[in-house]
Amino acid sequence: MSQTITIDPVTRLEGHGKVTIHLDEQGQVSDAHFHVTQVRGFERFAEGRPFYEMPSLMARICGICPVSHLIASAKACEAIMSIRIPHTAAQLRRMLNLAQMVQSHALSFFHLSSPDLLLGLDSDPAQRHIFGVAAARPELGRAGIALRRFGQHIIELLGNKRIHPGWVIPGGVTEPLAAAKRDEILAMIPEAYSNIKIALNWYKQIADSFQAEIEVFANFPSLFMGLINEDESIEFTDGALRIIDAKGAIIEDGITAARFTELIGEAVEPYSYTKFAYYKPLGYPQGSYRVGPLARLNIAQTMGTPLADIELKQFKLIALGPVHSSFHYHHARLIDILYGIEKIEQILTDPLILDKHVRATAGVNRLEGAGQAEAPRGTLMHNYKVDENGLITWANLVIATGQNNNAMNRGVLQAARHYIKDGKFTEGILNRVEAVVRTFDPCLSCSSHAFGQMPLHIALVSPAGEVLDTVTR
Amino acid sequence: MHSDPIRCLILACGNTLREDDGIGPHLAQWAAERWRSDSRIRVISRHQWTPDLAVDIAAAHSVIFLDCSIDAVPGQVDLQPVQPAAPQFALATHHSSAPALLALARDLYDAAPQTALLLTIGASSLELGEVLSGTAEAALPRATALLQSTVDNLLNTPEALR
Fold first, then answer.
1. C-alpha distance from residue B78 to each of A240, A259, B32, B65, B140 (Å)
2. What domains lie within chain A, and their CATH numbers?
3. For residues A149-168, average pLDDT
4. Across the interface, do A11 and B91 touch by the CB < 8 Å criterion?
């Protein structure tokens, strides 16, 4: 008798998702899917709006990474305007994007994943949360909260709001950086270094104890994609995209936003509202790839900052070529944070950072434009078409979670097959399946939020609809 | 970031797009106007209470949480003391309760406000809409009067005067 195990919702994610695990007649896992159960209609909402409204509209998509949408959208608008923004504006945007990355990664690592890493994947789920971490290792809890506040406060200083800031507009930013704000951010840097050092040292001590999970948490060869600078250093805001294969060979380089859709296609599957991005020359699903912290570190030769470079060298010792296990997203995320702090400090010492010229202006000079940036969880691309009056006639967004979608599904199947035997499972086993998804830190519904406490209900259902077993928490 | 000790932290949560769920932010807006020039009082209004607010709680002598209540009779104004208590469920990530935030401030920063109170108004409707229900609207004057007197008392305690 075939059976299905359902994990609905998957917990400690941004948004709501569901996992189904299908068992065959012998109780072995035959298939597994990660479902995103909410419709995203943002592209439709945008139609008919003036293009210059798009950044502020698109920022509302997500409460976690509105800055990424602001920046990718503004860049798409600037392609329509055919302009290059002033150097200072580009630097200020880069700092804003990095601040967002730091706060989002801190949320992912400390709030969502550290309960598993510190308390154990089999620990009591009633205690397996950030409050449990705070009670067990207060210094870790303090570091996580402080890093999140560090990023959020920079966003608030620059964009006047912690969530859904403005400031980034087509052509640059609305106002230059004040010296007082620069000094306030610089004053926060030493504590941020101290906190990420605590996290990195702790993680490197405990990582080896998760060798069993490393082996089966989405551990397979794949392509990787991310932004990179011409000097081979990691990049979040400008630069161009690079794609490497599973052995590390560069198969595409210098991909500008204008070429994105030439190389990247999107497939759909009946079980999810999130699209599945793939590299067109290899087709779907062979051309599926991963983005985000792991991909960024796999494609980069250098971080471009001294402390993060030391960490990158250690990270690259994990494997001879690209690091394949998605468990290492956690480690990569911490190195991203360190890089972000260093880069923000570098940007603030740019002699032109207080320059008053932070905006370029123009009207509609092209009828289509695309912009790309690195969101915390991976590459984000906005593509718009407008009429001669600048009204949006078509829009498409390719988000990081869609680009990791195939890998997440493969990872769920890999872990389910490894852990679930003869139809038997425990809460700890199902938490491991969930934890595979958490490594990617997917953002599923962005602007949607939970109402209430989101109970987890797992049911084992026979083909006839009979509930054979349930686990509820 | 604010690191100076705050005599009274007023911490509201709610969504102003869901009718009476916006009670907390409405009260917070009133409080922010009322004590705009009083540096002893800090008002924070959020859609959700998140763990990072433990830092602000740890820096405050007293805290008043503002929220709607779905358990109370619609329009009923209540003021209750709050004790620290860690959540007993696994999903404490995107939203924290007042007791949980107090527990977090205690565990992380070894800090406990001398007074912690929760002021609520019973919600009548949580449907989509940017205005409060008539019942909640009618309760606002009683809630603001209670908030005023509570803050006055907190500011006049011997500890607060130090």
1. 57, 60, 20, 11, 12
2. 3-447 (1.10.645.10)
3. 91
4. yes
- Is B55 within 8 Å of A149 when comparing Cβ atoms? yes
Residue B74 lies inside a defined structural domain of this protein: yes
Q: Within the 405-464 window of chain A, which residues sit less than 8 Å (CB to CB) from chain B? A: 449-450, 453-454, 456
- Residue A457 pLDDT greater than 50, yes or no: no
Q: Which of A283-297, A324-338, A448-462 has the lowest mean pLDDT?
A: A448-462
The sheet that has B77-81: what strands, in order across it? Answer: B41-46, B6-13, B60-69, B115-122, B77-81
Q: Which helix (H) or strand (E) holds B68?
A: strand B60-69
Angle between helices A87-106 and A66-81 (to 10 degrees): 150
Q: Which domain holds residue B29?
A: 6-157
Amino acid found at B120? T
Contact B48 A449 (CB under 8 A): yes
pLDDT digits (tens, 9 = 90+) for B125-141: 999 999 999 999 999 99
Phi, psi angle pair for A370, to nearest 5°: -135, 150
Check A131 against B54: CB less than 8 A apart: no
Q: Specify the number of domains making up chain B.
A: 1
**Confidence category of residue A458, pLDDT binned at 50, 70, 90:** very low
Q: Is the pLDDT confidence value at A416 over 60?
A: yes
B51, B55, B108 ranked by CB distance to A111: nearest: B51
| Cα separation, A413 vs A30, whole angstroms | 8
A149, B86: Cβ pair inside 8 Å?
Answer: no
The model's confidence at residue B94, banded by pLDDT at 50, 70 and 90, is low
The token duo for B55 is: 């830092």
Res. A14 pLDDT band, cuts 50 70 90:
low
- Do residues B20 and B125 touch, judged by C-beta distance below 8 A? yes
For residue B100, how far is the Cα from the chain centroid?
Answer: 13
Q: Any chain A CB within 8 A of the CB of B51?
A: yes
Domain at B137, CATH number? 3.40.50.1450
Residue A40 is predicted with a pLDDT of 66
Q: Is residue B162 part of a domain?
A: no
pTM as predicted: 0.90
Q: Do A454 and B91 touch (CB under 8 A)?
A: yes
pLDDT > 70 fraction of chain A, expressed in percent and rounded: 91
Q: What is the mean pLDDT of chain A?
A: 90
ipTM: 0.85
Nearest CA in chain B to A153: B1
- Touching check for A95 and chain B: CB below 8 Å? no
Handedness of CA A119, A124, A130, A135 (dihedral sign): negative
